[in-house]
Amino acid sequence: MIIKTKFIIHSSWYLLALLLVYSLSQDYFPSLLPSLSFFNALLLGILATLLLFVSVFLHELAHALYAWHKGLKVESITLFFFGGLAHIEEEQLAPSTEIILALVGPLVSISLGLIFLIVQRVALSLPLWHLLGYIAEVNLLLGSFNLLPALPLDGGRIFYGLLRLKFPLQKSLRMATVLSKAIALLLATAGILDMFSILNLPASGLWLFLLGGFLYLLGETNEQHMTLQHALAHKTIGSLLPPMTRVDESTPLADVPDNATAILTTKKGKITGMVDVALLKRVRRRLLRIPPNHDTIGRLRIPLERLDHADITDDAMKTLNRLLRSSKPGIIIRQGKRIKGVITKEGVMRKV
Predict the structure, then answer these.
(1) What is the pTM of this model?
(2) Range of the domain at 128
(3) Cβ distance 350 to 261 under 8 Å?
(4) What is the mean pLDDT of residues 180-200?
């Protein structure tokens, strides 16, 4: 299962890593060690950034190891700059499993912080002493920050799991989401007040503002995902199939029904592909002046070979996750060898 897991470095890592290297080498380490050369300061900045990367990786790996221990499939581990995300393919987890799965990550970060503090005591040089101290401080901060009861942070998932021990799923999610947004807005507001010198916080106001905003956006995305997960629990992908409109490839665009929600193209009665309904509407608006007989639905056909395929009895959430993480525009749903319909991202969200 470990071999099948994808390890992804998010694009945000590279930009912020460069900013961190610059900040550490030009400001942080030179302020502690005024006699430090440019090269040594740059080296310390790079080493600190790499150690931070490894720390974040170990944090997420702890989540994955516990998931593997519980027999769950970890599809991928995505590393952001100050955190990561283990994509675990699961039904609704039991509250106790959710709590422990969320808790192991911060425990690893805090443990790493304590280990680096211990190793710092035997550092052979002052630059190494400051480097180890910085990584220890960041790991302790990372572990503590992730324990904030705000989704999608680990603390938010712990809080959500605790709520589920007493309340129904939807009520638990609403309560956890309200608290998450309040914490994100509080962090962002504190950052703004610090930037305007209304507050004098030990942390950078800009970083607090960015963390609060990033946390709020992640919380919104997480809420949508969890709502969708609850809505699709124990459903098959076949239950989400919209009404199908079959249209011959030679049909003029103007003659395609306006209320079509899912379109399969045919040729001599045989299904040949699908049409993106949203794309069809855009093309119609742009080509109003062109005679309809010059613009057939076949021009917009996406061949079957470019589409993914699933059985009508497949799990809805797992199939939707495949669609969302795929570059393919849709999934053809089959019952045996017969094509029953097509699922697109827009169509599923509209159905749910």
Answers:
(1) 0.69
(2) 1-147
(3) yes
(4) 80
